[in-house]
Write a structure and sequence with these properties.
It is a single chain. With 136 residues, the chain is mainly alpha-helical. The chain contains five helices and no strands. It has helices spanning 3-21, 30-63, 68-94, 97-102, 104-135. α1 runs antiparallel to α2 and α3 (68-94) runs antiparallel to α5 (104-135). The longest helix has 34 residues, at 30-63. The chain is elongated.
Length: 136
């Protein structure tokens, strides 16, 4: 498995986060909310594909390493990602176009929180997990 592929996935996810950041949240109308949901749908599709790749290749490879510290770190990362993905699922269960129109402030506040958590996770993977992969 090539780390470059995972980094490319991360880059695509960050680009979508940055596009969402360009919206003027104090001027949200139906059109802008539709645009945000379009970006979010693309984001979730790419995130799902990325996580499938990690679950199928990255985590099993690292968890099965004979070095217990590598295995432990990979297991912890996998568990943490599961928790974060549950937060993503909860967000999309709660918010749809209609509910976002009714409560724009909460919709955007929770979205910004979620995107922040995902960005933090990406930075952490690239700083800790990918070097483990490269050295194993």
């Amino acid at each position: 498995m090539k780390i470059d592929m995972l980094k490319d996935d991360h880059h695509r996810l960050i680009v979508i986060c940055e596009k969402i950041d360009t919206f003027y949240f104090d001027k949200l109308d139906e059109s802008r909310i539709k645009d945000i949901f379009s970006l979010l749908n693309s984001f979730v599709e790419q995130l799902d594909a990325h996580l499938l790749c990690e679950d199928k290749y990255l985590y099993p490879y690292l968890i099965n390493q004979t070095q217990t510290d590598v295995s432990r770190v990979a297991s912890n990362f996998k568990n943490e990602m599961g928790d974060l993905y549950h937060a993503v699922e909860a967000y999309f269960s709660k918010w749809n176009f209609e509910t976002a129109l009714v409560n724009k402030i909460a919709f955007i506040s929770e979205l910004c929180d979620l995107m922040g958590r995902i960005r933090t996770r990406i930075r952490k993977e690239e700083a800790v997990l990918f070097p483990l992969m490269a050295s194993s």
